[in-house]
Amino acid sequence: MLRLWPALLLLAGCSGGPEIVPGKIVSNNPCIDAILWRVAAPGQIGAVSQWSHDPDGASAPLDWAKRIPALGPTAEEAIAARPRLLLTGNLAGSGTNAAIAKAGITIVSAGVPATITDSITQVRLVAKAIERTDAGEALVREIEAAALPQ
Description:
Layout: H1 5-12, E1 25-27, H2 30-39, E2 45-49, H3 62-65, E3 70-71, H4 75-81, E4 85-89, H5 94-102, E5 106-110, H6 116-129, H7 133-147
Parallel strand pairs: 1-2, 1-4, 2-3, 4-5
Helix pairs in contact: 2-6, 4-5, 6-7
């Protein structure tokens, strides 16, 4: 039995972590994760992007992101998660998004903001998509206040 312990410990490390709860909102974009951190209601998010679990790639606080399962960028992962909504960047290939849409998953795609105005537009897009417009507008006010010259 003692000889089996190393193998059992190795197999225990192969588990994929917490499962994504079907029917929730998922994101595969770290910039969108940062908005979700500020705007989403507790328990509303089923997964954040895999990059938000990486200290070198996270846009949202790592301790927040690590409490939520991670989702990779592939159509297969998004479809397997069975979300009610996928928030993604507009850099996903048209084939990827087409496969996800064909599986019946609603997709909201947001580009990479180049200006403060673009960032505000993205916050409003995400907030509306997750039905949290009041929280989105609160974040917009913070962004506008920080962007104004003092």
